[in-house]
Amino acid sequence: MGLPAIPIVSDLGLDETAKALNTEQIATVVNRILDQETAARFKVYLNTCVHCGLCSDACHWFLSNDRDPRFSPVGKVKQTLWEIIRKKGHVSPEFMKDCSRIAHTECNVCRRCSMYCPFGIDIAYLLLVVRRICHELGMVPQFLQDTVNSHSVTMNQMWVKQDEWIDTLQWQEEEAKGEIKTSRIPLDKEGADVFYSVIAPEPKILAQLIGNIAQIMAVAKVDWTMPSLDGWDNSNMAMYSGDFEIMGRVERAHYESALKLKSRRIVMGECGHAFRGAAYDGPKWLGWREPPIPLIHAVDFYHELLTTGRIKIAKKFETPVTVQEPCNIVRGRGLGQKLREIISMVCEDFRLPEPGLEHNYCCGAGGGTINCGPPWKTSRVKGNRVKAEQLAATKAHIIITPCHNCHSGIEDIISGYKLGMHVKFFSEILMEVMEVPDELKC
Amino acid sequence: MYQFVSGPLVWIAFAVFVGGMVYQFVTMLRLAQKDKVIYPYMSLKYSLRSLFHWIIPFASRNMRARYEVTIVTFIFHICLVLLPIFLLAHVAMFAFAWGAKWCVMSAGAANYMTLAVILACVFFLLRRVMLPEVQFVTYVSDYVLLAIAFAPFVTGFAANRQWFDYETTIIIHMICGSLMLIVIPFTRLSHMLFFPFTRAYMGSEFGAVRNARDW
């Protein structure tokens, strides 16, 4: 068909694993996973797909790569699962390398395609099955595997040690107290209204976000706590590598930590994938229909604070803003409208992206793709040109996104396509515009 | 030969079709228990909401974006299902065999609807050949399945018009029709059975769990 060659990317996690595998081992793993871990959804999806290609237009990878059919959702399934099934798992290690490239690095499992398939086939689920097979074979991009190893050892994503965690919280409490007198980060407080959890990059590289939330909580007079021990990190990269056992451990630790403190509900910081793990992928694996304790995303929480008047706006943010709507809370939890409402409440000039809400394009970083690390960055940025065009069309200066993956992914796109825009979390905007009563000011 | 294809073969085809559909349905229900999320997530309200948006033309974003596929697909499926049931010749045969009768469509309507199915098949074929994203995921079996769906209609049309020897054409037509019935449960044509269930599950997961729309 004369398609351009896919650039070869060197990744130790794939290259070294391929050397150690053989076809028989692969067949054994494939057949075990397909026999024991898949059932009605898998079988019916495969039997129902009529190869119509109507899912293609949903995928930012397909659209951004000049409609290259290898990047369409069904094209990805064809190059992986259909071949694996046709050969009853007897595929080569090199083939499995391609499967990992496709499933881990060229699909954000954003589920936009399942809204375009006339049958409602969950194509992202099929690619997660491919990831599961890859994981069982040890065929996972090295950077992504490292985050999973970190989850396994430390129960957080970034090798944050126990003393570093406490130390960071104390440091940020000090910082927050310098701005707002009553700022506290209460540790292990029993029976608090809010158990606040974050993802590991916050203490590791974005500690000021924790200081920000301490100030916001102080102004809103929220009864809250954070845990001193494991369970504070709500992120879950194991969910994306295919290591569902560790995914389950991480989610269980998160909930148990909140239950131990008898908190009334968990409020999660601004992160989409973490919310996905905690709200449905984790519970699904653990056999829970709903989480054992109410769980709400930061967007929901800010919406509550703003609509109940616990946070008032002193002066609206004037710079033109737009929004990157994170798949995992918009397509994943229907928070799109609330997100737009809170942005409208704090910003003067809010420019809507098109397409929007559930139909918004993924940032290109989600689904563990950005965690596959620098080797895959070029293809990731190339694979989301439509996002750059969508953002540029708004002519906004600031892109608000309540998600860490979106934040990093959009920053890459901004620099890759020279958009000259900036990304901010919602809390950063809120910090600039919220009314702080005089008695709380330092 | 005519006696066989118009009698036993048709009954065999119906038996395999019904038996195969029941088998697939029961297998799906059994496997759904193993897939531990399906039954807890299923919601009648959200299943119907999703089905509603996907059986009404243009009620979903992708149906509006790909309007030509939507128009052809809806016409194709409506004609494909209604024609065999309400065609005078078919109803007459059932009346002859069972004494059972139901309403029939006019010859003119049947003529146009058959033509619509034939043209739709040509459209699907062209789409498969010409669009890279469809071509890329096309196997030989996709052409075979299209041919199986196409054959009863084109042979029925030819028989009606008496283009060739009528008896031979009608025998081929009945063989093609029976073949289609037989393969439906065991090939991707089983989307006839699975469509409401895949939609219902996705509608339920989107609506009841993820609080979002799926159209």
Describe the 3D structure:
The complex is a heterodimer of chains A (about 450) and B (about 220). Chain A folds into three domains: about 10-140, Fumarate Reductase Iron-sulfur Protein, Chain B, domain 2, CATH 1.10.1060; about 150-310, no CATH class; about 320-435, no CATH class. Chain A contains 21 helices and seven strands. Chain A has helices at about 10-20, 25-35, 40-50, 60-65, 75-85, 95-105, 125-135, 140-155, 160-175, 200-205, 210-220, 240, 245-260, 270-285, 300-305, 325-330, 335-345, 375-380, 385-395, 405-415, 425-435; strands spanning about 195, 225, 265-270, 295, 320-325, 400, 420-425. In chain A, about 60% of the residues are buried. The model of chain A has no long low-confidence stretch (mean pLDDT about 95). With about 220 residues, chain B is an all-alpha fold. In chain B, α2 runs parallel beside α11 (about 165-185), α6 (about 65-85) crosses α8 (about 105-130) and α8 runs antiparallel to α10. Chain B is globular. Classes of the chains: A mainly alpha (about 450), B mainly alpha (about 220).
Key words describing this protein structure:
heterodimer; A: 442 residues; Fumarate Reductase Iron-sulfur Protein, Chain B, domain 2; 4-stranded parallel sheet; 3-stranded parallel sheet; 21 helices; B: 215 residues; mainly alpha; 12 helices; 80% helix; globular
Brief account:
Chain A is mainly alpha-helical. Chain A contains 21 helices and 7 strands.
Radius of gyration of chain A: 22 Å
The count of helical stretches of chain B stands at 12
Number of strands of chain B: 0
Coarse morphology of chain B: globular
Query: Strand share of the residues of chain A?
Result: under 5%
- Helix-strand string of chain B: HHHHHHHHHHHH
Q: Which structural class fits the helix and strand makeup of chain A?
A: mainly alpha
Structural class designation of chain B: mainly alpha
Total strand count of chain A, please? 7
Q: Number of DSSP helices of chain A?
A: 21
Helical fraction of chain B: over 70%
Strand content of chain B: under 5%
